[in-house]
Request: fold
Amino acid sequence: MNRNFKKDQVETMKLVTVLSVLVLIMLVLALTLMNNLEYPAANTDPQTQYMELPALENMPLESAKETLDSLDISYEVIPTQSRVANRVERVEYTGKDEDGKRLYEIGTTVKLHANEVGTDKVIYLTFDDGPMVRYDLDMTVYYTTEELLDVLDEYGVKATFFLAGYQMVKNDRSHFVNELYEKGHLIACHSYSHDFGKIYDSTDDFISDVKEFESALENILGKDKYGSIGKYIRFPGGTESNGIIFGDESLEYINAIRGEGYKVYDWTILTNDADDSYRLAGESDKDYFMRSVKEGLEGAKGKNKPLILLMHDKKAMTDVLPDILDHLIDEGYYFDTLENCPEYTTAE
Reply:
């Protein structure tokens, strides 16, 4: 039995040895085969990620910065030579357009092209009472506000238009109001009726009149455009309008309209285009308006107030506006709309 056991043991060892050799050969063949196979190179680059970039063109620079900060998007302001200060003129970014959306590449810097200047160099052009339709003596119609807009376009500057609701409606100036919006000018409220006796009878009547303006403007612009603009108002006659409202009563009206989400603006510089009481004997419109502006600028120095220039929608202003703009540019001023201006009222 010992002889048979030893024989079996030897045979088992031979079998194990053969199997071991076979396993080793198979491993060598498998490794050889794997080395001879060609695999595509591994993609070590992470897939590019995108997010939608909000519309920033024509936006006040500070608002654009706040928007990008809220989305955690880094940005850089690239100086431009625009006459319009502190407003995004153009946006540069790495990304692509897809299905009408601007997709921004995460991790790169958005470049905001804008003319960023100090507030002491900015003047706010404002026009009241439009949009007007005028007639010559031969009944030829001309559109004063459109002519003002043509001048502003020529100089590449923006302004704030305090529109009267009844003027928008009675002459169907919807096309012009939309043009104001599309060109980046600010549309603001100057009441609907511009009727002192009506709107200053009570704060309720005032609010009701403004609501009528809002309804008219939304009908003209459409819901989306209307919803994209803020609420800015200039009281007809100002917040202390020739004794009609004054003192504590003015503050009641101001607080009431602020409760509706509005910012209130008077002015700090006049052209006196609606008041001849300061005109010198024989003084032309051009000389009168220009003198008023120069005196206003001089009087505003050192008072730490925003430079808000009041003008009206009238033919005389259309004719003199180029001279006013030339003077302001020569004096080193830039322009913007009231979106970038803090509230200013003479009643406070």
